[in-house]
Every structure is written in C-alpha cells, then in structure tokens.
C-alpha cells in the first residue's frame, strides 16, 4: 500500500474513488526544502537526502492537482488535514476553494525549534487546514482523548475543551544522532489528528510520506495505512522498517480518557438506593472526612455523579 511514485499519478493509478477515511498531507513547502538543514542548523549528515521540492512557480498547479485527487479518493464524510507553512498557503486555500471540500477549522500548530531570525519575529508555527468531504457525517471523536468530566488540576478548566482548541502546542521530536527526514512531523501531532478523525480499522492515507510518520502513527493506533513518496532515497530507507511494525504498538502511548467513573450516571435512583447512600454517608461522616472527600468515595462506590449524590444527601437533612 506504499508506492514510490508521484502522488497525483499514483492516486489515479492505485486509489479508487471514495476509498480513504482520513488523509493527512504535508506537501513540500516550495521554499527550498531540499536545503532546509541550513535554516534549522542541523547536521546534514543526519538528514536523509532526496527530498523532492516544488518550485514556487509550479506551486499553484501542483496544489490544484493533488488536492483534486485528495477530494476524489476521500469517502463522503472523509477528512483531509493539510499541513502548510505560510509562504504558499494561499495556493492551497485557492485550490481547496475549487473543490467541494469544506474547511471546518484553521488550526495553528505551535512548535519548538523555530527558524532563528534576528531582525524579525521567529517563525514557530505551521498552519493545519482541517477539511471534510460533504455527503455523509464526518468522524469526530469528541471524547477520544479527554472525557467531558476531566479538569485541569491548577485551573479547574475542562481538559477536553483545551485539547480541542484550534491552537496546538506540540513539540518536534528531538532525535540527537538519529537519521531523520527533512520536516518530520511529530507522532504526537499525527496521533491527535488520527484519534479525533478516524476509528480503528479505518484507512489513513498520506500523499507525501517523507519519513512515513503518518503511516507509523496510523498502524500504531490500529488503523490501516497507505501513501506515496516520490523520492527513492526516502522511500527505500523508510520501507526497511515498515513491515516489522506491530499494529497497535502506540496505543498505550497517547492520551485516552480514563474509564467512565460515573457508570450509573443518568439512571433513576430507587428509594432503596437513596437510603443506602444516606446510611453510608452517615458512617463516613463519623471518620472525620470532609463532605467533598465523602462524595468522592461515594462516587466510586455507587457510580453516581457528585451532583446527584449531594441531592440525595441534602434530602436526608431536610
Ligand atoms: C514535507 S515532506 C513530508 C514529511 C512527512 N510528513 C514526515 O513527517 O516525514 C514532503 C515529502 O513529499 C515528497 N514529495 C515531493 N513531491 C512529491 C510528489 N509529487 N509525490 C509524492 N511525494 C512527493 C518529498 O520528497 C518529501 O519527502
């Protein structure tokens, strides 16, 4: 399912209409990516050669061609994420506007190791366009990483809300001494898109595989993967390890919500249950615990949320 070819020709040849659930595409940026190591002050010997760039003059037609293929191969309701720098963003937005794809969010990804500049601000973000193909309900697993009930310890704010804000701060992986592709995306960033926008067993595609990071994250989270990389150097280097990857190998590494604590939430309380809760509350009160601590214990024991427990206990007092 991984092809060493140009993505537009490869998609036409190998991918049927409406066959992909989720596409994550990080096209070359058209800013001399083949010399990026100079900007990032990286050791050239550790950066894999053979990155294929697009010239600025070709960028509009190139964007139109691959985005049209992306639209075709996505299932109705399928999702496309496009990672882009600022320089050619306009061509990507223009190409998207010529398709039926709908942009639901324009995400800013803030990372570390921005390109150092002295006489202007340091650029430390990329754009991620989150788009869906109309025609069916798109997958968005709202509680795939944080449940509605989880709160930040310091501020008390909702972790689910914070994780779903459209500014993401995720650091690039620091891999001293290891060979890497130019512009390798962190697995944590890819895992977040995959968790929210696909389910286990879904097919996840990437038109610009580079270091195959999308494919690795997808297989690691028990999805199927496919894609294209035009550079034979990058393709051959990465393909060596791909067949050894165990499906699901990343499942324990990324955030998932804890098992539901209040498993009885929403079910009506019987009079017998209410009486049992009041009795237990009275017993726990004698131990010197605070009301908050007792409610927490009762929540674990009964599967009821704090609000309904407080109501039952107040009923006892009245
Ligand atoms: C920005 S990098 C992708 C990096 C990748 N997301 C990662 O995490 O490693 C873009 C990649 O697209 C490849 N490429 C350029 N033009 C291509 C084309 N027409 N079809 C397929 N791959 C292409 C480049 O060689 C490069 O490896």
Structure write-up:
By secondary structure, the chain is of the alpha/beta class. It folds into 2 domains: 2-253, Vaccinia Virus protein VP39 (Rossmann fold, 3-Layer(aba) Sandwich), CATH 3.40.50; 271-317. Helix content is 35%, strand content 17%. It has helices at 7-14, 36-40, 59-73, 89-97, 159-163, 187-197, 213-220, 232-242, 271-285, 291-302, 306-317, and strands at residues 2-3, 20-25, 74-84, 102-115, 123-132, 167-169, 203-206, 224-228. An 8-stranded mixed sheet has the order 1-8-7-2-3-5-4-6, with helices on both faces. Helix 1 packs parallel to helix 3. The longest helix is centred in the N-terminal third of the chain and has 15 residues, at 59-73. The N and C termini lie far apart (67 Å). The relative contact order is 0.14. The mean pLDDT is 90. S-adenosylmethionine binds next to loops. S-adenosylmethionine is lined by residues 6-7, 26, 28, 51-52, 181, 183-185, 207-208, 210-211, 213, 228-231, 234.
């Amino acid at each position: 399912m991984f092809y060493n070819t140009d993505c537009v020709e490869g998609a036409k040849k190998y991918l049927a209409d409406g066959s992909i659930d989720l596409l994550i595409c990080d096209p070359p940026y058209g800013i001399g990516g083949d010399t990026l190591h100079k900007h990032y002050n990286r050791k050239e010997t550790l950066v894999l050669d053979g990155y294929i760039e697009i010239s600025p003059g070709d960028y509009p037609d190139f964007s139109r061609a691959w985005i049209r293929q992306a639209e075709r191969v996505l299932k109705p309701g399928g999702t496309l994420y496009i990672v882009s720098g600022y320089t050619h963003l306009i061509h990507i937005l223009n190409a998207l506007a010529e398709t039926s794809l709908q942009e639901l969010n324009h995400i800013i990804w803030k990372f570390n190791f921005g390109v150092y500049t002295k006489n202007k601000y340091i650029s430390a973000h990329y754009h991620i366009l989150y788009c869906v193909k109309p025609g069916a309900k798109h997958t968005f697993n709202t509680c795939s990483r944080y449940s509605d009930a989880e709160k930040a310890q310091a501020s008390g704010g909702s972790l689910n809300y914070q994780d779903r804000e459209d500014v993401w701060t995720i650091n690039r992986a620091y891999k001293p001494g290891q060979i890497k592709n130019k512009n390798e995306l962190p697995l944590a960033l890819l895992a977040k898109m995959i968790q929210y926008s696909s389910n286990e067993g879904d097919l996840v595609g990437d038109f610009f595989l580079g270091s195959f990071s999308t494919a690795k994250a997808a297989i690691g989270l028990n999805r199927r993967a496919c894609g294209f990389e035009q550079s034979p150097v990058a393709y051959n280097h990465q393909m060596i390890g791909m067949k050894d990857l165990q499906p699901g190998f990343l499942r324990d590494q990324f955030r998932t919500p804890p098992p539901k604590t209040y498993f009885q939430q929403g079910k009506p309380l019987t009079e017998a249950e209410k009486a049992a809760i009041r009795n237990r509350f009275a017993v726990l009160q004698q131990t010197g615990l605070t009301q908050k601590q007792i409610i927490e214990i009762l929540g674990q024991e009964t599967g009821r949320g704090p609000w309904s427990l407080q109501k039952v206990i107040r009923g006892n007092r009245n």
